[in-house]
Amino acid sequence: MNNQLEKIKEEALRQIQASGTLDTLNEIRVAYLGKKGELTSVLKSMKDVAPEDRPKVGQMVNDVRAIIESSLEETKAILAKKAREEQLKAEVIDVTLPAKKSNVGHSHPNTIALEELERIFVGMGYEVVEGPEIEYDEYNFTKLNIPPNHPAKDEQDTFYINKDIVLRTQTSPVQARTMEKGKLPIRMISPGRVFRSDEVDATHSPSFHQVEGLVVDKNITFADLKGTLAEFARQLFGEDTKVKFRPHHFPFTEPSAEMDVSCFKCGGMGCRFCKGSGWIEILGCGMVHPHVYEMCGIDPDVYTGFAFGVGLERIALLKYEIDDMRLLYENDVRFLKQF
Which of 100, 142, 212, 286 is the most exposed place for a label (fewest CB within 10 A)? Predict the structure, then answer.
């Protein structure tokens, strides 16, 4: 038994010294000290040893185990240190090398245009208010003075979920909801996504964005509307920008108008960008219809106000000279990186 233990010890120490990795060292530990290892086999054969010799043999087994364990720990420390040194050598960092450039997100032209519009109107004291994209027919049409037989309510123009619920065709319902709350005066803009049953082409899409504004207070006149929108145009397109208003009709407002701005490419002289007219149509506007006030619980004899609406994509197309609206939604990184 003594010779057997001596042979096991010498073989174990030889293998430990020859081991080059921590994984190999662990395999040696299992082979000699594990449940099915060499020393465990010796202990299981103790039944064949004479009773008086068992304490002596047991002590010899423990001594061999202690020697093997000690050698394993010493070698493990040496190998771990060596592995750490090799890791540090492989992961060395040259601080003089240029840093790797991180790829970060880029704002979409629509987002840039919206932030610019919000900055302008918030600077004038307006509040940004949002509302639901799925809207009741009552708010999308009725409370905006759009009668049941109006062409805008046809199914070829509006997406209906059922007869009472639609995908909003404008963000004006947010204005009606705000007026209903009765907290006056009101100075707000309502940006958001809207939906209309349009064919996709260079200037139309079934889903696009609008920014609509509303002011309700005492003694508000059309002159306030003109001054506000003229200042908006100057801040957006440049200090030399001029505006003009043409009569129009919107159910929500009376009187109503469309506003043009002088071409910021040619200064109003006429060019390809403005199709030779010197002017570019930019938005619709007007004084809020008295009947709208009545439906929203506001006394039209005490309060007046104005409203306006501008297509966000139209602002982006004009400001960044994009000639096809579809480019905004194709997610071509080569295009988006230009802004």
Answer: 100
| Residue 100 lies inside a defined structural domain of this protein | no
80 shares its domain with 115: no
232 found inside a domain: yes
Same domain for 28 and 139?
Answer: no
pTM of this structure: 0.66
Most confident of the ranges 8-17, 281-290, 322-331? 281-290
Give buried/exposed letters for 59-83 (b at 16+ CB in 10 A, else e).
Answer: ebbeebbeebeebbeebbeebeeee
**Domain boundary residue, one of 90, 125, 154:** 90
Q: How many domains does the chain have?
A: 2
SS3 of the chain: CHHHHHHHHHHHHHHHHHCCCHHHHHHHHHHHHCCCCHHHHHHHHHHHCCHHHHHHHHHHHHHHHHHHHHHHHHHHHHHHHHHHHHHHHHCCCCCCCCCCCCCCCCCCHHHHHHHHHHHHHHHCCCEECCCCCEEEHHHHCHHHCCCCCCHHHCCCCCCEEECCEEECCCCHHHHHHHHHCCCCCEEEEEEEEEECCCCCCCCCCCEEEEEEEEEEECCCCHHHHHHHHHHHHHHHHCCCCCEEEEEEEECCEEEEEEEEEECCCCCCCCCCCCCCCCEEEEEEEEEECHHHHHHCCCCCCCCEEEEEEEEHHHHHHHHCCCCCHHHHCCCCHHHHCCC
Query: Mean pLDDT lowest for which of 12-16, 161-165, 175-179, 213-217?
Result: 12-16
Integer CA distances (angstroms), 319 to 116, 163, 186, 190, in order:
11, 39, 29, 21
% of the chain exceeding 70 in pLDDT: 94
